[in-house]
Amino acid sequence: MRIIVPFAPGGAADITSRLLAERLQPILGQTFLVDNRGGAGGNIGADVVAKTEPDGHTILLSTAALLAANKFLYRRSMPFDPERDLAHVTRVSTGTVLLVVNADRPWRTFADLVAAAKAAPGRISLGSSGTGTTSHLTLSSINRAAGMDIAHIPYRGGGPAITDLLAGTIDMMFDVIPALMPHVRSGRFRPLAVGSAERITYVPELRDVPGMKEVLPQANIDMQSWYSISAPARTPAPVIQRLHEALVQVVRSDEFKARLEPMGFTTVWDESPSAFTQYVKEQEKVWQGLVEASGASLD
After folding, report:
1. Which of 124, 168, 257, 296 is 20 to 30 A from 57 via CA?
2. pTM score, two decimals?
3. Is the domain defined by 2-94+225-294 classed in CATH 3.40.190.150?
């Protein structure tokens, strides 16, 4: 069996897929291959799955942005329809984004950052993993909510942005927690807030970092991302059901949860493939609003 990961090796999606593959193999009695097909915000890899034979041997490690936001970012060039061309199985993990600044910068709190940004509009810079990504959409939301102008610098992936943040070329980043935690733990990055409404209590080093409800209480910001599994549309229902059962067995285990949480994610699952499909439809409205408010377009 193949798990297509529509992003480059080494990131949080890749790590999650490999953790799943190791645990699914004995349950399903199949050898698993993780196949990285990055590009176009995940569309290239997802399109491979959408056009693959629906026999249950190829599945997609997907993301909230890929399933719910990309159709609004790539309005003219989206190569597939997530609702029509994929059969959704379940979510497997959930998490948020973390706001960090280079530890050499003077800002000790989110309020310090807001004051500095208002005093020098457009002078403080945030690097993201690309236009229309969760990090960019979160910046757009906090800029509007706080009445400030932090400049957005898009990169071709989170890795190059992290490199420039370490070098001090940019001032800050919103990115997924697993990618940033090694530098938080080393003292190179200072965390100022998480993008979720509430604090992230399952990562010890972040328990004192405020959520959006604390720093921007009237903004109603709650950036939640998730990873999930989908298969090609028309995959037989019994195959989808067996995949769902196997995935839920993995995701509900204490051992899998214990591997995820130090990285900054925790486990989540849906009671049925139809429940997850309905959840994706509901999430489309949320992400459409975020994309349209940001003005982002990738066509």
Report:
1. 257
2. 0.88
3. yes
